[in-house]
Amino acid sequence: MKALVLAAGKGEGLRPYTEKEQKEAITILGKAVISHVLYGLKKAGIEEVVIVTNEHEKQIQDAINVDIPFETVRQKRPGITGAVLDGMDKIPDDEFLLTFGDIIAEPEFYMNLMNSYITGNSKAVFSLVPVSEGMQTYGLAKIVDNRIEIVNEGSTLALAGAYIIPKGDFTDILEYFKKISPFSRYFIWSGKWIDIGYPEDLINAIEVLLSDLNNSIISDKAEISKTAVIGKKVIIEDNAIIDDYSVIKGPAYIGKNAYIGNYSLIRDYSSIESEAKIGAYCEVAHSLVEPRAEIGSKSYLTYTIVGREAKIGASVVTVSYPANPVRGRERKLGALISPNEEVYHGQIIGPNYRK
Amino acid sequence: MCGIIGVISKNDEKKLATITVQCLERLEYRGYDSVGVASMEGNELEVRKAKGRIDEVVKRLNILSMTGRVFLGHTRWATHGEPNDINAHPHTDCTNSIAVVHNGTIKNFRELREDLESLGHKFKSETDTEVIPHLVEEFKKRGMDSFSAFKSAINSIQGSYAVLAIIKGENKIYFAKKDNPLIIGLGDKMNFISSDIPSFLPYTNKVLILIDGDVGYITPDEIYIENEGKKVNVLDRIKIITWDASAASKEGYAHYMLKEIHESPRAVDDTISGLISDIEDVKNAIKILEESKRIIVIAAGTSYHAGLYFSLLLQREGFNVIPVIASEYYNIKTNQEDSILAISQSGETYDVMIALKEFKANGSKIISLTNVIDSAIARQSDVKLYTRAGPEIGVAATKTFTSQIAALQFLYSLIKGDDYTYLNKAKDVIRRSLDFEGEAKLIGEELSAKSNAYYLGRGLSLPFAMEGALKIKEITYLHAEAYAAGESKHGPIALVEKDFPVVFINLGELVGELQNNVQEMKARKAKTYAISVNEKLNTDKEILLTVEDERLSPFAVTPIIQLIAYYSAVKRGNDPDKPRNLAKTVTVG
């Protein structure tokens, strides 16, 4: 079966970051968001993928590091409906797997979708997730007579963003879902699932992805100082350098060729991606530092996202509360620094700051 | 639901019986009240079948010693017609040369059976399935070749089916499919055909999913399929399963428990219609209950909570009802004037069996309510009543509890002389509750971080508070205690401190009193939650469900307490389907 992956959204919840980088190309734990999706699809037996993109097509192509045949299609018609129609032209089969490229879920999410399809004797399967307020990205569904009904309100079950549907003619994808729902199956997904829409989703994703880790996984090729302290739930990739007296308390991820300077503390669900540099005497918690970003010495990052190749000066302090994120129960949110941006030395940056 | 399997091998495979049994074990989630296997070697066709669980029947009938190159297997879940040795599949024709296993329902079997009997066919069982081998036999007698005879038999039946048939002397398994699943597995010198993929997945990942209208046969090295009279190109439909399909039987759900909670609307509906079709038994039960001086309700665990609810309903009507935890049976002496209502999902619960024997010896009349037709407890009873929730795999009872509540309300309504048709809406009430799954998840995840919780209720809410606490204990391993809300000030409130979680169950009666209890808890800075029907308690977090007919409140509340426990267990990383230290059927004392 082929899959159609949508990666042409505007990423409004992550602006101005997404003006420079497509949301699906953001890296978490060494893998772009879209690669997390493709990894799951591959595990679920998908043989080929069509990815619908916008002007950031090249970023998406470069971000894929999963071994699965794919082709990209530039979106021409508008909206999600247009994206599906443009991508569907490249799907030869009667039925296909449609998924959004901005979901982080376990491979079992896609495997269960396939299992439900294959055992269910049905042309369409919808995945649903239980949600609380403010989490209604893809629309809601009610269950009526063992079938789902697509609704605008009055349910806490949301469409989970991955479906198997038959090809068809439609002018509105949600209307099409409504049309096929009477002969569709559904299942409720209760495992890990995050739809990346806002900065807090990225921060939450690190926590969700690292929460299963029981032991540290440390590459033989990493260069770890004898005086460094490594905690119990830490992943350290090839050629990362952990300098003298630094503490990787974890849970944390340190990517390939990343550098953690002397006396720095990396703790509580932080992800330092490949080739990023953290200077000396820094503290990083609940933060995502993208590839090749640089953090000056004596800085403090909390609930913060630093974009690819961005530069944070020395002695920069981020403040995470009082904040009012759109999603999640954590009332904390620090800064969102877009790729290639710079933050000058010695600044104190308030919550919800975006550059 | 039933599970069927066919295995055919080129070689004289000694282990074919073992393989068939292993496939059957993986199909056990589709039913487990009777089992049967047919094997064929050359011109020898042998059938061994019996009522009971797979492992037990396999041992008792020594099924592993069967030999042959063609095997059929069947695991059954009876909904009507008791699961006994004769009704177990495979079924055979008059000459014992055609064996058939079937999953589905044949609507026109009575007419077909009459026709066949008038032609001289002798039937052994009460099942609808048995018409198939006789039909094949009849068409063959009229000169048709085997495949034509099989197709003609299939064309004669109406209803839903996945059917497998073997005929003496032929190294083939014939099959047909409509509305029930059937999948072919292509192995090495060995082919499979089964109700699902996981059953044969250890042997092959090359599969062909049959579609409605497909009819054909498999041999050890050939697959032949027709649909609407046209030959199907088999190669086009073969798929390789490269992913882990072991979870396929959960139909997409991560756990059986969540799947089974979502099956509750259907389970309740099937239970009610089952009781309506068994209305004579229900009337007999009511007569016994009404005529007895005391009604003793015995049950254990979740079933006890259903029994307690029923007791409260009847006590309010002036009946003398005593709910008894089955293992505490020795505290009560019954006599001929008492009636006993024994409630057990499995119908095999040891404690209930022991209590039942004792009370029966005292001359008390026994009524049973079980989810397994003709279960051990049912056989001990004067009147057998059934919930029809279908097989439940998750150890923590969910849809079976909801079905017990439905069955007991049905009884209660008839005792009161009320119209029971309001229960037809129970399924819709459950479905509407399931729309609150997101909120239940939120509460469950908050509870998962705690080490203690209170579940409080008053009146009819109390059994549901107790069930809520039990679910949390069973699968979250969080200490939860339920008690009557009015008891707080007599002791338990001493434990309450800042953020201590207290969950109120509010079926919509005694709301003012419950609101006072909420204030008591809030004054001690407890974190208060409520699952309320129609009227709010104003707790810190509250799920408010609305129900037109308050008698249906239990169906609104039950899915929510189950979902809260489920999500709290998942958040803790526990497997809710297999809680530690617990077994589905407790057959030990």
TrEMBL record, chain A:
Span of domain Mannose-1-phosphate guanyltransferase C-terminal: 248-316
Pfam family, one: GMPPB_C
Alphabetic keyword roster: Acyltransferase, Multifunctional enzyme, Nucleotidyltransferase, Transferase
Listed GO MF terms: glucosamine-1-phosphate N-acetyltransferase activity; UDP-N-acetylglucosamine diphosphorylase activity
Signal peptide annotation: none
InterPro entries xref list: GlmU-like (IPR050065), GMPPB_C (IPR056729), NTP_transferase_dom (IPR005835), Nucleotide-diphossugar_trans (IPR029044), Trimer_LpxA-like_sf (IPR011004)
Start and end residues of each Nucleotidyl transferase domain: 2-150
Pathway note: Nucleotide-sugar biosynthesis; UDP-N-acetyl-alpha-D-glucosamine biosynthesis; N-acetyl-alpha-D-glucosamine 1-phosphate from alpha-D-glucosamine 6-phosphate (route II): step 2/2; Nucleotide-sugar biosynthesis; UDP-N-acetyl-alpha-D-glucosamine biosynthesis; UDP-N-acetyl-alpha-D-glucosamine from N-acetyl-alpha-D-glucosamine 1-phosphate: step 1/1
Catalyzed reactions per annotation: alpha-D-glucosamine 1-phosphate + acetyl-CoA = N-acetyl-alpha-D-glucosamine 1-phosphate + CoA + H(+); N-acetyl-alpha-D-glucosamine 1-phosphate + UTP + H(+) = UDP-N-acetyl-alpha-D-glucosamine + diphosphate
Protein name: NTP transferase domain-containing protein
Organism (species): Acidianus ambivalens (Desulfurolobus ambivalens)
Automatic annotation (TrEMBL), chain B:
Xref: Pfam families: GATase_6, SIS
The organism's taxonomic lineage, starting at the top: Archaea, Thermoproteota, Thermoprotei, Sulfolobales, Sulfolobaceae
Keywords attached to this entry: Aminotransferase, Glutamine amidotransferase, Repeat, Transferase
Catalytic class of the enzyme: transferase
Record organism: Acidianus ambivalens
PANTHER family per UniProt: GLUCOSAMINE--FRUCTOSE-6-PHOSPHATE AMINOTRANSFERASE, ISOMERIZING, GLUTAMINE--FRUCTOSE-6-PHOSPHATE TRANSAMINASE (ISOMERIZING)
Domain (SIS): residue spans on this chain: 285-421, 443-579
Gene of this entry: glmS
UniProt-listed CDD domains: GFAT, SIS_GlmS_GlmD_1, SIS_GlmS_GlmD_2
Name of the molecule in the record: Glutamine--fructose-6-phosphate aminotransferase [isomerizing]
